[in-house]
C-alpha cells in the first residue's frame, strides 16, 4: 500500500468483533481491551462506576457527644455574613506551591481582591479572592483538603 492510498483509505469497522470485545469486557470485569492486527488497532473501553461505600461509625465514636458542637460550628460558619464559600468542588491549597508561605493565616488583614487560597478543579488552579477588605477571623480548611461546592472556606470580619 502506498502512502497516498493509506491516507485515503477508510478503516473498515468489524462491528461483530467490537461486539465480541464488549462482551468479553463484561464477562471478565475489565475496563478496556485493545486488539492489534498489523496496522489496524481496535480499543474498546468502558467507564466503571464505583459502587457507593457506606461507612458506619465505630460504636465508641457514635456514642461520643462532642461531635454535635463541631457540626453546629460548621453550620454557623456557613451562615456567617463574612463567610467566603467555595464556588466549585475541588482540592484547596493554602499556598502557591508546596513549601511556599500560605497566602493567609488567621488574623491576616486582606484587601478586596487579595488571593485567599487556591482551589484545584480538573487540573486548573482557581484563585479564590477576598470579596471585601477585612481581617481573616477563621480559616476553615486545611491544605490539600477536598472541598465541596458552597463549603465555607474562610471567614472575613
Automatic annotation (TrEMBL):
InterPro entries: AcCoA_biotinCC, Biotin_BS, Biotin_Carboxyl_Carrier/Decarb, Biotin_lipoyl, Single_hybrid_motif. The keyword Plastid does not apply. It comes from the Bacteria. GO terms for biological process: fatty acid biosynthetic process. One of its GO terms (cellular component) is acetyl-CoA carboxylase complex. Pfam families: Biotin_lipoyl. Residues 81-157 form the Lipoyl-binding domain. GO terms for molecular function: acetyl-CoA carboxylase activity. Keywords: Biotin, Fatty acid biosynthesis, Fatty acid metabolism, Lipid biosynthesis, Lipid metabolism. Pathway: Lipid metabolism; fatty acid biosynthesis. NCBIfam families: BCCP. This protein is a component of the acetyl coenzyme A carboxylase complex; first, biotin carboxylase catalyzes the carboxylation of the carrier protein and then the transcarboxylase transfers the carboxyl group to form malonyl-CoA. This is Biotin carboxyl carrier protein of acetyl-CoA carboxylase. It comes from Tardibacter chloracetimidivorans.
Amino acid at each position: 500500500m502506498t502512502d497516498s492510498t493509506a491516507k485515503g483509505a477508510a478503516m473498515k469497522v468489524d462491528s461483530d468483533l467490537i461486539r465480541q470485545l464488549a462482551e468479553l469486557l463484561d464477562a471478565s470485569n475489565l475496563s478496556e481491551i485493545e486488539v492489534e492486527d498489523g496496522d489496524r488497532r481496535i480499543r474498546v473501553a468502558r467507564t466503571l462506576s464505583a459502587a457507593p461505600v457506606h461507612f458506619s461509625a465505630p460504636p465508641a465514636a457514635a456514642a461520643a457527644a462532642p461531635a454535635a458542637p463541631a457540626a453546629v460550628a460548621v453550620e454557623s460558619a456557613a451562615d456567617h455574613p463574612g463567610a467566603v464559600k467555595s464556588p466549585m468542588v475541588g482540592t484547596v491549597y493554602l499556598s502557591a506551591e508546596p513549601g511556599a508561605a500560605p497566602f493567609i493565616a488567621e488574623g491576616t488583614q486582606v484587601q478586596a481582591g487579595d488571593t485567599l487560597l487556591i482551589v484545584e478543579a480538573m487540573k486548573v488552579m482557581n484563585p479564590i479572592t477576598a470579596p471585601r477588605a477585612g481581617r481573616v477571623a477563621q480559616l476553615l480548611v486545611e491544605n490539600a483538603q477536598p472541598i465541596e461546592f458552597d463549603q465555607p472556606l474562610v471567614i472575613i470580619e
